[in-house]
């Protein structure tokens, strides 16, 4: 079982091409993609892939709904700009949200899976602190072989402080399966 969240197309392609290296036969990829533009690309790239489950949702520490923001350049057709799409509005985004998206409680989702998660890749544009805090609070990192996290401390001082506290906790508790330096 491999679960990934936003910006997964390249990673998914690599994993599906070499699936026995990662998990053996029967492995599947679960991709959460809240960005409507990136979702269309993902579905077009993998139209009939039985090992891929696409969840049209964001992930967070609690289930719900939230506004979703994209950049002006994406609105002009620059697909590479999906990399900056986020639930967290920043100065690079358009003023109005482009959609209201569903948020899945990632800890709850993982608890409901029938098998162990082999790799969890988080690139969730500023929400990584709240999700990782929730996973660690429930000790769910023990049910995941490897957690790769792209952090976005530069978004705000508050986020930088939370990521810093997570780094200290991971070191103090000798959690060896969480990598906060994924890019």
Structure notes:
With 183 residues, this protein is α/β, with parallel strands linked by helices. It contains seven helices and nine strands; from the N terminus they run E-H-H-E-H-E-E-E-H-E-H-E-H-E-H-E. It has a six-stranded parallel beta sheet, covered by helices on one side. Helix 6 runs parallel beside helix 7 (157-172). The two termini are 21 Å apart. The mean pLDDT is 84.
State the shape: globular
Residue fraction in strands: 15-25%
Task: Give the topology string: H per helix, E per strand.
Answer: EHHEHEEEHEHEHEHE
Q: Residue ranges: pLDDT <50 for 5 or more in a row?
A: none
Strand order of the largest sheet: 3-2-1-7-8-9
Q: Give helix % range.
A: 25-40%
Q: Return the structural class.
A: alpha/beta
For the sheet with most strands, the description reads: 6 strands, parallel
Let me know the number of strands.
9
Q: Which value, in Å, is the CA radius of gyration?
A: 16 Å
Give the integer mean of the pLDDT values. 84
User: Helical region count?
Assistant: 7
Q: Compute the separation of the termini in Å.
A: 21 Å
Per-chain topology:
Elements: E1 2-4, H1 9-17, H2 19-22, E2 29-32, H3 36-45, E3 52-55, E4 58-60, E5 64-68, H4 72-75, E6 99-105, H5 106-111, E7 117-122, H6 128-137, E8 144-149, H7 157-172, E9 178-179
Parallel strand pairs: 1-2, 1-7, 2-3, 4-6, 7-8, 8-9
Antiparallel strand pairs: 5-6
Helix pairs in contact: 6-7
Summarize, please:
With 183 residues, the protein is α/β, with parallel strands linked by helices.
